[in-house]
Each structure stands twice: as structure tokens, then as C-alpha cells.
């Protein structure tokens, strides 16, 4: 039995069409360019990753497990493949599609399985499906569909979601407005007995919305400034709507040929209706700031980042919440205290600190040494702490994290092999946020990672 006969028919057909069109498209693309004709074939791109992860612990407590996962190691290998196409059938019209096959864990996903709905079947997601249309002059445009959306700082919203954007652009700036729905767990059609009922029972009463207005402006000296406002209106709790307005600002650019700076600032104000004691309203007031610097002193490259966001004191009687509402994505290069940039592990310490209202101060440095044009050594050191110990048993020290490794990039950066090893020496604040049984256990966590990335 061949590989294609084991796959769901729609997936086998999609792969066949993708390969066929890819080959034909390349030929037509080359012929059209040679003859000076308009190129009407889609542009294809792809990302491939095989990834290895091993950690000696999951919660800083290596007590022998009895009935919980407490003390167990973590290890897996997986593969992710994201082919995509961008088609411009005529000037000022763009269609974008991206398929993600993954993250497929080798020990779990069985390609020989017969049930296409089984949990052991390879995971398939339609990651991007959007279209963009510009007016004939190219100054005004509309982009709508499933897309990757983020605010200029990435600290407030950063995710794939359904969204509609309109924008007006001129030579040095672009003003955009967007409205979309954040996927949530509340769905109004659970009692439906047919597809028709399912459609009729769905409404806009308990949904999570995003409305945004922002400007991207490129200054004469190359600096890029992006101010904006992002409003999140969360109605998923019945009778307790939550509205948060975030004023954001990002500035990044160069100072001379060897130094680049990146600065983020966010202020948040909002209200949680009936969310406090005795169903009283709770007011939100929070802030965040992030500063990054990169120095190119070849063959040495240095990068520094500092992230701070406010905490809440935990007092339920003051009707104020000063904890920052965080997207979970910063520009830190740490891998346990923040998002793992090699492959997202989810539920990192910075996300847990934000969810508890504990606040965060995270500082890290990345230093790399180029041994050759395609080979470099990498070291990462980071230190983190919470800003309020109320939520972490009066402890604020999250820990110290360090990693070292090597990256080998070939073929004009299209292929990269990365090997990193290191870990985290946690503090008691990290133990409280992560541990489930012994909240004082602070045994070190060792982490080893390896990846092969291919992208075109």
C-alpha cells in the first residue's frame, strides 16, 4: 500500500496538486520572465522543521512520581511543515494561503492509521486564508480573512485569528484600522441538532472582539514609529463583559552602522463589569515597557533586552486591578522564563506571572561569535523576577537561565542546524508559579534542544 493511499483523500489530493502546480508554476514563471510577460502564477514558500527537546524535569521537583507527573522528565521529537502560496492574479489583488502539517510528534502520530479523525493522525491546520484588494491608485486597501495579527509591540495581541483590515498608505506611512474576533471557548450552537440550527443559534452575544487603529511611519533617517490603540471587548462571560483599551507605541531604528535599538511602551485602561466582590465593577490600570539593543561588532554580535510589566497587589477590596494583560510574546531570548524561540513550549513563566497578576522584570543577553560565514557560537543568559510577592508566597526571584550552543546556516540561510543546551536555576517565585505539590522545591531544570530548519 502506497503512502498516499493511507492519507485522507482530501490531503492526498492537496499534496498532489501542490506538487503539480509547484512544478508547472516554476516552469511558467521562468518562461514568462524570459519572454518579459506578466507572471500570473502563484509564488510558493515553505518552512520545514524537525525538532528535538529534552528536559530533566517539568516543575523543579524531581521527587519520584506516585500518581502525578511530578518529577518526570520531558522529551519528544516532532516535525512541522508549512507550505504556502501567495497569488496576485492581477495588480492590487493578493490571495494568501498557508497549510500547517504539525506539530506532529513522532511517538504519537501514526501515518498508517485508518481513521482520519483519530488523535493519532497527523495534525493539519489551515493556518492562513486571506485576501487583499487595493484601489487602482494603491493608496487604499482591504485585507480580510484568517491572518497573523499583532500590535506594533507584540505585547498586547499576537496570534492567528479572523480579521478585517482597512488601510490608507502613502510614501512614508500607513494608517490601519482592524476589527476581528478572537477564538474562544464559548460557542452558542452546542444544542443544535442540524447544520441549519447550528448556524441560526450562533450570534455575537458571547464573543471576544478586537478593534484597532494604528500608524506605521518611516522617518527620514530610517527610524520606524508605530503608535496605536487596541481595544479588546471580551463578552465570553455572561453578564460580565470585560473591556481593555491598550495605547501602544513602538520605535526601532539604527544609531550608526553597528547599533540598533527597539523600544516598546504600553498603557492599559479598562473595566470588568460585575467582576469584583459583591458583583462590583473592577477597573484596570496597567503598563509595560520593553527596551532592546543590538550591537554588530563583527565577528561578535551582542543583543540585550529588558522587559517590565506591572503587577497587582492582590487586594480584592480596592476594586482596582493593575496586572498587565499580556499576549505571552516578548523579545526576550530566554527559553523557559519566556517563549522558546526555537519551538514554542507554551505556558512559560512570564505567562504564568501575568496570569497571576504578579508582574515581571526580565533581563537577558545574547552573545554570538561567528567562527565562519555560516557557523556561530551562541550564549544566552537571563535573570527574572516578579514585581509583587503577594501571589508567590512573598518571594519575587524567578531564577537565572543560561544556554549555550552552535548554529550552522547553509545555502544563503535557507538551511539551519541549531544545537543548544542549558537550563534554569529557579527561585521560589518560579516554584510557586509552576509546582503543584511542593511549592518550595527549586531543583534546577536542564534543557537540551536541536532543530533542523529549511525555509524558502
Describe this structure in words.
The chain is mostly beta strands and 456 residues long. The protein has helices at residues 3-6, 9-35, 195-201, 349-356, 428-434, and strands at residues 43-55, 74-90, 93-105, 124-134, 140-150, 158-169, 173-182, 208-218, 224-234, 242-254, 259-272, 282-297, 300-309, 320-321, 360-370, 375-385, 397-410, 415-426, 445-455. The chain has an 18-stranded antiparallel barrel. It is globular, with a radius of gyration of 24 Å. The protein starts with a helix and ends with a strand.
Can you give keywords for this protein?
456 residues, mainly beta, 18-stranded antiparallel beta barrel, 19 strands, 12% helix, 49% strand, globular, disordered N terminus
Layout of secondary structure:
Blueprint: H1 3-6, H2 9-35, E1 43-55, E2 74-90, E3 93-105, E4 124-134, E5 140-150, E6 158-169, E7 173-182, H3 195-201, E8 208-218, E9 224-234, E10 242-254, E11 259-272, E12 282-297, E13 300-309, E14 320-321, H4 349-356, E15 360-370, E16 375-385, E17 397-410, E18 415-426, H5 428-434, E19 445-455
Parallel strand pairs: 12-14
Antiparallel strand pairs: 1-2, 1-19, 2-3, 3-4, 4-5, 5-6, 6-7, 7-8, 8-9, 9-10, 10-11, 11-12, 12-13, 13-15, 15-16, 16-17, 17-18, 18-19
